[in-house]
Amino acid sequence: MEASGDGAAGDDVVNLLDHVSRLVYGIGFAEGLFPAQWVALRYFHDSDESARTLTALARFQRIHLAPVSRTVATLVDKGLLSRRPHPGFKRGWLFDLTDDGRALLDRDPLRQLLGPPVAGMTESEQAVLATLMKRIVTHMQDRSPAPPDAVPAPVPPAAALNLPIA
């Protein structure tokens, strides 16, 4: 099978990806949170302890530290995250989901909406979709420059993120 991004089929796929991205963003306004706050909750839930820092979240999202800091501070104020001193860095903090944060994540609108159609796929369909989505994410990360004053560091390739699909 020859890969081609040209023509009507390629345009249809691009339009479908755009539509999905808009739907995903739109459902992120739920339970009194904004999409960036859901991203942060998912990130801290899915990350190893050593990566549950402001800097690591900013690197993951390829955005400035200031908005990440505001997002996380809001989640702490809402009682969804707790912070504790980072054992390896004097001025660093580690963030953990609180019981309320975990309970809210159980009602994650993204996982509730996308979980059923993904669960309805065969394992091979899920594997193909995951492979293709990782390829798209990696391509976009490689070609999308980070903001000039974003936290410097490469974002791990999508394949290394091992994020859950459903």
TrEMBL record:
A Pfam family matched in the record: MarR_2
Coiled-coil intervals, chain numbering: none
Domain HTH marR-type intervals: 1-138
GO terms, biological process: response to stress
Gene3D superfamilies recorded: Winged helix-like DNA-binding domain superfamily/Winged helix DNA-binding domain
GO MF assignments: DNA-binding transcription factor activity
PANTHER family reported in the protein's UniProt record: HTH-TYPE TRANSCRIPTIONAL REPRESSOR YETL, TRANSCRIPTIONAL REGULATOR, MARR FAMILY
Protein name: MarR family transcriptional regulator
UniProt organism field: Azospirillum doebereinerae
